[in-house]
Amino acid sequence: MIENQNIRPAKVIGPLGEPLTIASLPPPNTKRWVVRRKAEVVAAVNGGLLTIDEVLERYNLTLEEFAGWQRAVDRSGMQGLRVTRIQHYRDLYERQLKY
């Protein structure tokens, strides 16, 4: 019987369609989070390359912050991660829910 094994892929597909490995992820000391870097971290978790706990520890993020990134990607794609337009995308998502 096979129990829950920790099998991880060596690479996953990144947000721009490129292969993403642990080595190609943003470095752990990243302080400036641009859209692409956030999307790469979300893709790494979604693809099973890293766990949420590993991401929180590696990048010193809060669960709420990372969950916000995931929600933004789910709702609006990479554009939803843009800090300057966050209210626009939030309003757009709420309008879509109404109709």
TrEMBL record:
Pfam families (alphabetical): DUF1153
Signal sequence range: none
Protein name as annotated: DUF1153 domain-containing protein
The species this protein was found in: Croceibacterium selenioxidans
